[in-house]
Amino acid sequence: MREVFSNPITVTALVCTVTGVTIFDDTNVEQDITHVVKMAYVAGIDTEKWVLFKSRRLRILHVENCCERDEALKLSCTERGTDANESNDA
Q1: By residue range, what is the domain housing residue 50?
Q2: Is residue 9 within 8 Å of residue 49, measured between CB atoms?
Q3: What is the mean pLDDT of residues 7-20?
Q4: Whose CA is closest to 53, among 71, 79, 90?
Q5: Separation between Cα atoms, residue 34 and residue 15, nearest integer Å
Q6: Taken in order 79, 32, 47, 66, is the CA torsion positive or negative?
């Protein structure tokens, strides 16, 4: 099964790899942050969206509207893996 993105947008962003950083999600489960994405503000970006960076799929864990000015976003993400669904193929 191949995942298809609906209404994709293309933006210029700075993608940084980080290590040793964790946050708690909405259910108080600890999540490791693997990437931080810094980009211009785009309305509607939230934790229900995904980031496609080269061949990597990044799940957005937290969205920060820098200085609350609607100019820049900082996305804390974790690497999701590939678009393949190997667990369902077994």
Answers
A1: 13-83
A2: no
A3: 88
A4: 79
A5: 10
A6: negative
